[in-house]
Fold these 2 entries.
Entry 1:
Amino acid sequence: MKRLSLTPYLIWMVLFTVVPMLLVLYYAFTVPTEGGVTWSLQNFARFFEPIYLRVFLRSLYLAVISTGICLLLGYPAAMVMAGNAFKRKHVVMLLFVVPMWMNFLLRTYAWLTILERNGFINALLGFFNLPRLNILYTNTAVVLGMVYNFLPFMVLPIYSVLSKIDKGVVEAAGDLGANPFQVFMKVILPLSMPGVVSGITMVFMPAMTTFVISRLLGGGQFTLIGNLIEQQFLVVGDWGFGSAISVVMIVVILLSMAVMSFFEGEEKDVALW
Amino acid sequence: MVRILKRTYIYLIFAFLYLPIAVLMVYSFNDARSRGMWGGFTLRWYVELFQDRTIMHSLYSTLIIGISSAVIATIIGTFAAIGIHNTRGVPKKLIMNVTYLPVLNPEIVTAISLMLLFVFSKVRFGYLTLLLSHITFNVPYVILSVLPKLRQLNKHLYEAALDLGCTPLQALWKVIIPEIMPGIITGLLLAFTLSIDDFVVSFFTTGSGVSTLSITVYSMARRGINPKINALSTIMFTFVLALLIIVNVRQAREERKERNGRRVPKKDSPYDPRFGSA
């Protein structure tokens, strides 16, 4: 019975997860020649041309900035929500996740309405006779869109770790003479590290690979690595190069996850002591 | 004093999260096409929304794909979870790692890999490819919802059922499945919402003529602001809000009942931010 129940999934998994990934690798490491295809690293070499390298660095830069802002905004928010500032924590958390239930596209589109030349912000500024802002189609708009969409991914893991911290440990630190700042730096922050790590990964990954936010809020010419992949597949038709970029993305993300889990592991060891 | 500061901070974050939605909702009743000014109250955009055949058709496709992919993924995923639960050692590790692959991969990579597969196998892009792709990214979430329930299950329940004369199939159907039902339902709902929310995978695996709501919104938004989308957002947000309130009121009522009656083991659900913290 055990075999029987697993078989459909195994077939599915091989057909729709393993084979497609192998296809990506195949396209990434081959180039078409007159007779057929040959194995080559040419697609990867192209990635290191200055234009594409610049796109990669810009994606990295914007993803790091957005992740940083999410952490700066999200950590205090998670701390307040895990603390006792609100009587009905449950309701506060619910209010926090409700916007996430709306379609991702519609949420991003909403910012279009706000940032537009004749949009909400400029109407507001105009009302007070202030100069107009042109944020739409700039880096700022893209970062704003990322922070807006991914902030909950930062707050929720941190919140769930913080709310599980034993209050006794915090009180003990206070009793042993630590001031609130020391309590935070030496007790709360180290204990919440696993949440921070998973928050950072959960924001950094989608921020690095998005192509929707950059297209809608960054405008047509704005290119991030996600847009580059999309173009190779849907516009240019260079699947080899597109696959190579995808492979690079996977490697970058695996590396960042390894680095993050290294930090997490280190903290766990400390916590064990 | 500190408490007021803390609360204010959270209210500011909420303002940031809700402002765009509020602005969309207000503008959906605005009788001027230009956003800068208020041209009076109107329901015109709602009427036009329901007359727009592209939007209505993509709404229909979204629901069809969402429901069918969620149901199929739940069936495959539930059986897979039962199988994985009874597997040990290296095969189990291998299967779990491949299961995590679509969860961990960037969406765009999953999308292009499936697109390559469909091109390679010469399937016509359309409903079928959409459905297959959605099932593919949904199954892991179902497995991850059902597995914890199986771990909580008393090992001897199944044996007891067999001893009492059940055939293995009956034991599965009458004992195991009812016990892990909460996990199955969570998986089903999760799969449905993921499918409805998906844009990237759909965008790469759909064919001409078939478009989900996300794809339609994307192509409309690229051409600029469209008041019909505002109306659509308002309806969807209200719908989601109503659904969440109903679910929560029901949950709170059940919890109260349980607290008054017997003690029940704490439910645990797979981690997904959309379901709040467990």
Entry 2:
Amino acid sequence: MDAVDLDLLRATVASVISADRSAAANDAALDAIGWGDMFAAEPDDAVGVVFGQLGRAAARSGLLDDVVGSALGLDAGAIVAHPKWGDLSPGSTAHANSLSVTFGPRFEGVEPAHVVTDRGIASISATAVTLADRGAAGFWAEATIDFAASEATAVALPAEAITAATSAARRALAHQLHGLAAGMLELARAHAAERIQFGHPIGAFQAVRHKLAETHVAVESAGDALAAIRPDEPMSVDLARIIAGRAALDAGRHCQQVLAGIGFTRDHDFHRYLFTAIELDGLYGTTAALTAHIGRQLIADRTLPRLVQL
Amino acid sequence: MSTTTPPSVERFRADLVGWLDQNRDDIAPPYTGAGSLPEQMTQLSRVKSLLWDAGFMGWGWPEAVGGEGGPAALRAVLGEEVVERDLVVSGFFSMTETLAPTLIEFASPELAAEFVPRLLSGAEMWCQGFSEPSTGSDLASLSCRGRRHGDDWVINGQKVWTSLSQFSDRCLVLTRTGTPESRHRGITAFFIDMDTPGIDVRPLAIMSGSDEFAEVFFDDVVIPDSRRVGEVDGGWAVAMALLPFERSTAFWHRTAFMQARLEEIVAGAPDNDHSAALVGEAFAQLHALRCRSRSTVRRFDDGEPLGAETSVDKVLVATTEQKIFDLARTLTPERLALPRTDDDLRFRDEYLYSRAASIYGGTSEIQRNIIARRLLDLGDE
């Protein structure tokens, strides 16, 4: 899609999603504007725009299940059980009959689900699931799968497919984290322009300006890293995920400080961004865990890959 | 290498790398470690001369100044490959990226055609006289005077932080030609021969190894109007025009220096969790910078105007260099505190120099101010 199309799509997506709606309502609205067809035809653009805007709006969605499901050969609309929160990759059922997983908002406790493991997918009925409470942002839930409690249909998949699914998830999450960081910056920027103290907007004070400027640098970095993703290079996805995760962390810190008291209230939208960023950070690996993972790989290789060339 | 259409970046890099490998012994520095400043300058001149004669140096520069044409990406790659191999001091090599375009754009075609080839070929070195003891971040406050005298101008005043002026043949100098209060509206740029009577160069002693900066004193220095660069009182535009050049190709060169140093660190890093976390962070930071810098070089070659958004690049360049050297200090602090080998001494110098990355070329504070006012629409302070 060209730049004009992408801008149009962004605006359209932004107009149909909202932080005030449920994940199901947002996803239905996205379906109605053609998410399924777009994702099938231009997956990178569709994911980039939709997940970026979901972040921008701090809106809930279960579409990550489609992103991962599609990489694993599942139908659109399938419910996916993602790795345990904080784990870098799907767990193993080799030595135990149970597995800790994370569910998105699609799973409400009654539907069958498809559990991603290190060897493929296990399709299970809802009776195998013990669901814990949802996260603070309201849409991620820890759960335990007890494979002995129901018949599981296992589909073995090559390791590359699991890696591709993990990478696809991280890419989508990176876009969403980038959007969250950009959304936080806009909240803080608008506040700094409007909030008057000592006869001036607080945005006139250099300490405030510099926090927002640092946040801008972080948000721009995330955008540049996402734009530089190479389809043949999974590490470029992981790095974009790290840089976007850092942007969300930095934006969280700086923007919270600028938003001060009003930003700390539940009336203000900031907490939605913060909570969402906190929850998303652990899916398919926290920013910190992924960073250390890459560091270990570099130290093992004793060289740096030349990922970005002119 | 001289053809009418520019080579692709991949082709250029392949040819260049092949030539560098073939001529490895010839082009390598004759000294170990960092070398002394005079040794570094001789090496810089030698490398540029070899690259010029081999046909690589001209790409990315207009034919009117002895170049071969082609995109800036080619000279970005040239600097990258040369810097990654530690053949030259990156900052010294990259000075060409800002000085040459300035003359090409603002000097008379005759002046540019006469002198730019000398800079490109390594026959000459040039310096930049902008900052003054009372003029740092507030460049528009400069007061070094340029007074009209018939067909000539007479320069009086002092510049500071002029890189490599003690080795330079020419200097691009900004002078106050308007009233003392005229700020950016009363500045004129000149291209001055460093052997003109009345010029005195005094190197500055800095905390990192070599005295690469100097004060330059101008005492009734007479220069012809033909050496004016740009319009009378039009020098601010000359100064501002430098930025897109510096923040595109010169920055790309610097990322290559950082990449080489980070790779050295990774090669010797201990294999533990703490080290892995820090290495990962530094690499992610470098990756962010490379993504940004590449985008900027490409935008430059696409003819897009580069403006306030390059303040983001400047902040990233400073943050990344400091992060990499902070990592090195964390992992091997003894090399900084108790340097023993030539490599330790080089590391110490480069660590100290990295502290200046957020200071020279526009401080990080100024960049954040620019980002706040121009990119975030926060109004005035």
